[in-house]
Input
Amino acid sequence: MQEPSESPTVLFERIGSTAVISLNRPRVKNALNCAMATALGNAVHEADLDPEIRVIISTGSGGNFCGGADLHEVAADWQIISAERPDWGFGGITQQLTATPTIAAINGFALGGGLEIALACDLAVMDEDAYVTLPEVTRGIFAAGGGILRLQRLIPRRLAMEAVLTGNPITAAQALQWGLVNRLSPSGTSVNVALELAQDIARNPVEAVNQSKLLMHQSESFGSTWDSDYWSLNDAIATRVYSSPEASEGLQSFIEKRKPNWQR
Output
């Protein structure tokens, strides 16, 4: 399905030290095609490389987060994974691990692949009237973009199993109660609340924040916290963080009973 040439599939806005990336195919509820996957993946990658960007927010334009994969293109056997970077996975984001913290600002609905994009983010804010779902089984297909893999890690297993096997929607209230999202926002304000959360993160030194995030993700594949591999990774990252100028300033400011002066 072709887009008007004047309409980029992804919008990029810099607000202070936060990048706000908006999916922009509102005519089809931001359903994801190859062009959008490429643009989204590139936008996230470029923001992650920018030292002035501390947090990346993903959201949807036109009132909805994302309607998932563009099934018209799937049915036509068109490629919906970025041809440039297939290793980044669905949407150019579900297998792209960034050092920069990411927040999903969920508005309207996040269906199928749309929820998978949100699940790939580190944190999530959701409008109180929004909902999310993995409806793939109702169409005889499979949530192959990380939905099944990640949902069961974020909410109780039996609740995840019900959501996956029935395709039933998850309301904002349920999402908050189950731990699927961090905060709810009044209707239409998910980006604003996500920006507040981003500010809470960005006031802390970048090395400590980014390395803490990476340790949480990279240690997921380990078994017990008693395993030696677990502690080897932990110690390597601790050495990196504790040798940084920010760590020295943080400890010195504590001793001197003053606020730390982080160098941006």
Summary: The CA atoms of residues 42 and 66 lie 18 Å apart. Residues 206-255 form one domain. The radius of gyration is 19 Å. The mean pLDDT is 90.
